[in-house]
Design a protein that fits this description.
alpha+beta, 7-stranded mixed beta sheet
């Protein structure tokens, strides 16, 4: 079964090698991951810049919001809380990458990340936050709850965390290892930048299986049937086989 790698950005005019933040070692590691899978020799990874923001958001609307299990529980026309402002702030972190098919210049995958530390975590809105987006509010409350329960800074005794927020792949390219390619590149980047741990919340069972297969630690799980509203009704009812959200982490 093809993987649904929409979990929980299009163009850069420079290759990663031209960015000073990326060392030769990282570029070699990324090229190794490309060649490690025979079909990836024509895939290039690039860092996302602010000039890409609108195009990246368009990609997310096509291949993330329509497929990510929590988003699919609500109406297709509902406004999403994850807007271009949030995307822009993630791009500023210089930790977000894209995968491009060099033969067609086609964007085929994206991965969005951010850095966290214990002090930053304290300033994040708690799960009682109220917004003008009912869908985004429910998703934010759920993801904040599972991250608080996972308590990664205390569990791993760390001070610097790389948070993988979204990994999404174009439908035609799913099941071909693109999400794994992007994730491995982010692991290499995290090591180069001195992060102690990388973590992700997998709302999709397919994505969870991918990180499990890559050897990441399963830290915490909340099953959707157990997340209820004030009326004791299940909040999220995604299609099978998506049965819960799983937090995975890996020491760097």
């Amino acid at each position: 079964m093809p993987e649904n790698t929409a979990n929980k950005v299009y163009w850069s005019h420079k290759t990663m090698a031209q960015h000073p933040a990326y060392s030769d070692k990282l570029i070699r590691n990324i090229k190794y991951h490309q060649m490690d899978r025979d079909k990836h020799s024509n895939i290039q990874l690039r860092r996302i810049t602010q000039t890409d923001c609108q195009q990246v958001y368009g990609f997310l609307k096509l291949y993330f919001f329509q497929d990510e299990p929590l988003s699919t529980c609500f109406g297709p026309d509902e406004e999403r809380g994850f807007g271009e402002t949030i995307l822009s702030s993630l791009i500023d972190s210089e930790l977000c990458l894209m995968a491009i098919d060099e033969e067609t210049n086609e964007l085929i995958g994206v991965i969005l990340n951010d850095s966290e530390n214990p002090e930053k975590k304290k300033t994040l809105p708690n799960y009682e936050v109220k917004t003008n987006d009912p869908t985004g509010e429910k998703i934010h409350k759920f993801l904040t709850k599972i991250r608080n329960e996972a308590d990664l800074f205390q569990r791993y005794q760390i001070e610097k965390l790389l948070h993988l927020i979204i990994v999404s792949v174009k439908k035609e390219w799913r099941g071909k290892g693109i999400a794994s390619l992007l994730s491995k590149a982010v692991v290499d980047m995290g090591k180069e930048k001195g992060f102690e741990l990388i973590s992700v919340e997998c709302t999709s069972l397919f994505t969870a299986k991918m990180f499990q297969g890559m050897g990441w630690d399963l830290v915490h799980t909340i099953y959707y049937k157990d997340f209820l509203d004030e009326n004791m009704e299940q909040v999220f009812t995604p299609l099978a086989p998506h049965d819960g959200c799983r937090v995975y982490a890996k020491r760097l």
